[in-house]
Amino acid sequence: MSTDYQQAREALGMRLRELRLSAPGGRLTGTVLAERLGWPHSKVYKLEGGRQTATSDDLRAWADAVGQPDTFEELAARLQGFESHIRSWRRQLAAGHLPVQDSWNLEVDRSRVIYAWEESVVPGMLQTADYARHMFLRYADLQGLQGPKRDTDEAVRARMKRQAWLYEGGRKFHALVWEAALYALICPPSVLASQLDRLMGVIGMDTVELGIIPLGASLKIPTANGFWVLDERLVIAEDWHAELWLDDADSVATYLKVWRTLRESAVYGADAQNVIGRVRRTLNPR
């Protein structure tokens, strides 16, 4: 878990403890507060210790139970502050993949220039529908999504809708992909073959600059996890527990420096097509 995220969660927990100890009717023990709230005793101490993330409802109930309802807005602002930057998958996927895709689409639509680095998958803006479908299914299985939350078809349509951005004038998508991602069989070989054909086809588009970093290329920095920079105003980086949405100038500058350093190892145009073609020939679609 992000250190910044954990520190923010612990700070919120300390504030909750302060409110419990400064209740207008006298300090409350954790046991008494838990009884008032109808919670397990352990939940109070997990929240105060920063070992569990409160929900908005939890914070409202806490403020009311300690006799200080006017503190709810402050508590909610603290929660919103760190959750807007570190968006846990558990919470984001509570309603399925579609809302996540819709949030991405809004940010992409308002962007003119996008820089992307992917070390393990094909960038979503360049995915075929079949490849995207298998991606969503893999993550749905990982997160245990069932029923209405397993909204694969809706999520695929939303991702495909985003790609209309590539066909609008005045936009530029600068994508870097590590060659290893081209081999990743997270889908059947026939689907991957079609995906590689799609990548070959976007080379030469005036709105797309696709660079491939060959496996044998000399690297100045490690090929760490993927990220996107939108208009040099927002970074979105993905980890297993959450997406990081970073908009401070220092973070954006750092990620752009990483992207530009990685770019020095990439090949473009006919050389990129040769790398993709070499991988494509290793596949035997059935």
CATH architecture of the largest domain: 2-Layer Sandwich
**Shape verdict:** elongated
Number of strands: 7
Q: Indicate the multimeric state.
A: single chain
CATH topology of the largest domain: Endonuclease, Chain A
Radius of gyration from the CA trace? 23 Å
| Low-pLDDT sequence parts | none
Count of alpha/pi helices = 13
SSE class: alpha/beta
The major pleated sheet works out as: 7 strands, mixed
State which percent range the strand residues make up: 5-15%
| CATH class value of the largest domain | Alpha Beta
Q: What share of residues is helical?
A: 40-55%
Overall pLDDT, averaged? 92
Protein described:
There is one protein chain. With 286 residues, this protein is of the alpha/beta class. The chain folds into two domains: 3-84, lambda repressor-like DNA-binding domains (434 Repressor (Amino-terminal Domain)), CATH 1.10.260; 88-280, Endonuclease, Chain A (2-Layer Sandwich), CATH 3.30.870. It has helices at 3-21, 30-37, 41-48, 56-65, 72-83, 89-92, 98-109, 129-143, 152-162, 179-183, 189-202, 249-263, 269-280; strands at residues 86-88, 113-118, 172-178, 208-213, 227-230, 234-238, 242-246.
